[in-house]
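Researcher: We're teaching a course module on how sequence relates to structure. For the next exercise, students receive a sequence and then see the predicted structure as tokens, so they can try to spot secondary structure elements on their own. Here is the exercise chain.
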Amino acid sequence: MPRYLVTLIGRSRQDMHALVTRHHVTVLDHGSRLLQDGRFQVKAFVEEEGQVAALRAAGYEVVRQVDAEALGRQCQLEVGRGDRYRADAPNRYNTLDTPPKDTLDEA
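Model: And here is the predicted structure for the students to work with:
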């Protein structure tokens, strides 16, 4: 199920409170910002397109920032695989007693 990071803009503090109590939106930082035009803005996670449509129908402005689910999968590809601390791993050492050869003083 897609999960989106969005910016939600509502008309009042009551609208911001309703995001959590009525619409069950995961709000980040649990704080809203007052915009110059008197509306309120908050960053949040929404679970699917249906929730985005429901929020728009309720009068919120929804600005999608990023598909957090896809970004998470992409970041997981950057994570190494296997046990990098095993004794035979290249360029690794397990104890302070055996530092890499390039750190030893050659006297």
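Model: If you want an answer key for the exercise: The CA atoms of residues 13 and 40 lie 7 Å apart. The chain is about 25% helix and 25% strand.
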